Each structure stands twice: as structure tokens, then as C-alpha cells.
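ok so i was messing around last nite and threw this chain in just to see what happens. nothing serious, just curious
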Amino acid sequence: MASISLKSTLLRAVLPAAIGIAVVVWLFAGDFNPDAWQQLRLTPRTVTGLVLAMIFVAGRDFGLTWRFRTITDGSLSWRRALRVDLMCAFTSAVTPSAVGGSALAVFYLNREGVDVGRATTLTLTTLLLDEMFFVVFCPLLVAVLPTDALFGSGGNTLLQGVQWVFWTVYAGIVVYSAILFTGIIARPEWVERAVDRLFALRWLLRWRPGAQRMTANMRQTAAWVRTRGPRWWMQVFGATTVSWFSRYFVVNALFWGFIPAASGLVVFGRQFVVWVVLMISPTPGGSGVSEWLFTNYYGDLVGSLSVALVIATVWRVLSYYIYLLAGVCLAPSYFQKKTSKQ
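result:
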């Protein structure tokens, strides 16, 4: 990958930012209610909520930085692991959610001194950890939250659509996780044989070399992860859980500050749904879709779409726009010269 100029980096960041801002303006134009702003007075509680939200943003990055450092067995310093985390977040912000930042994690790890083969192995492992997080915690969430609380009630078409998309995407996550688990841990040779036979079909032959590289990487990953002990697995899954929970608690902190009457458990559970639905967003970083979905999905808890939109905007600034800014600052020097091992 060639060097990336500051101009190119800015252009990559402008499109998703413009989409998000345009949707926010459109939503404000349709849902603005001056009376609703009385609920948004700046008080010690709201300030505390904003501070807590920023702390949870830092918790998200701490969890992923900890995970990158742990899976490399400490060969990455905290600083270098944080750089990988921020660059992956930037990639996620400027690419469709279905692509995500993991696609370039191999490159970022390699830039930090990890050889390509090992970087591929580590990236596949992080993918498995993220998917397993959703597989493990979704049944727990459904067990403690009634369907009406999680998805809303009243026959709302939007909420019914959210529920349908959520379960469809979750089913895909389960299947994908099963493939990753089988290919990385349980029976990598099964996946390798199945993929090889599938891509031997005439209309799939052109993609066979890439599929064979993928299964070879899975086999390499399987050999490596089988050497890891229980303590290692507890650390990396713990770091994954800290990261995802921190993402969700950002919204909990905002609701605690602005809408304290809302159920914290319901707010948390709906964040789980939001992130699953956004996995198939066609826009860069879910821009536009995130703001619209948040405003309408949380509207019943807030009582006002105007207030919900303000909270959604603050949420996106903390969970999205700061990573666009970080990427704009880091990317030019990151791509133009070899990263120092600090």
C-alpha cells in the first residue's frame, strides 16, 4: 500500500462526516421542538454524565489496546498497540460497516513490526473473539430483558424492522462464528477441505487461490492458538468484553446525565441491538444510519425525538468523529514512513 497524503486522508474523512451531518440536519428540520430543549439544561448531573461517557470512550480503547498487546505476547508496546487500535477505528469510520476496520488490521500490525503471517493469524483470532462476544452475550440479554423492552412495543413498523434485521444478522454471526471456531480451533482441516471443494467449481475457480490462502491462514492460526493457555484466553476475552461493554456504557452515561428516568438495563440492551444492526450499514462507519436509527429507536425512552437526536449527536461525536480526527492526524505519517518501535 502506497503512502497516503494528508489531502487523501481528509477526503476519506469528509464523506462520512458529511453524510452524518446531513442526516442530523434533516432530522432536526423534521423533529425540532423548542419546548423539548428544557430537558437539556446543563446541570452537575449532565456534566458528570458527559465526563463518564468520555471515560467509557477511553475504556473502549483501553480494552482493544490491551487485547492487541496481549495477543502479540507483549511484543507491541502499549503505545504501538494503541496506534493499531486507533488506525483500525479510523478505517472503520471511513469504510462501510460491513467492511469494518479489521480488514486492514493485518497491515497495521505489520507496520508495527509484526510479520505478515503472524499478523494474519492475530487478526483472525481477534475476529473470532469479537464474534464470540455477540454469540455469548445475546442469549443472556434476551433472558433478562422482555422482547417489548428490547425492541419496543405497539406494532411500530420501524421497531419490527429493527427486530427482524437484528435476528437475521445475529443468525449470520452465529454461522460465521461457527465457521471461524471450526476453522481456527476445532477442525481446521474440515473447513480447508470444504472450501477447496467448493472453489473447485468452475464458476468459482477464479477465487480459489484467495480461498486457499484464507484456509492456510486458518490452519496457521489453529496451530498457534492451541499453544495458548486458559489464562491467555481469559485475558483476551476479558479485554474484548471491556471494550464492547465500554462502547455500550457511553450511551448509558449520556442517558444517566440527560434522561435519568430511563432504565439503564434497557438502554444497555438496545445498544447491543444497535451495534448488531449497524454491522450491515452500507454507509461509511454507519454515518447517517446511526443517527437516524438511534433517534427513532431510543425515542420512546426519551419522550422527544428532538432530545433523542441531541443525545444521538453527542454519542456519535464521542464514538465516531473523534476517530475520524485521530485518523486524520495519524494516517499521513503512519503510511509515509516506517513506524518506530516505541
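not much to say yet. The radius of gyration is 21 Å.
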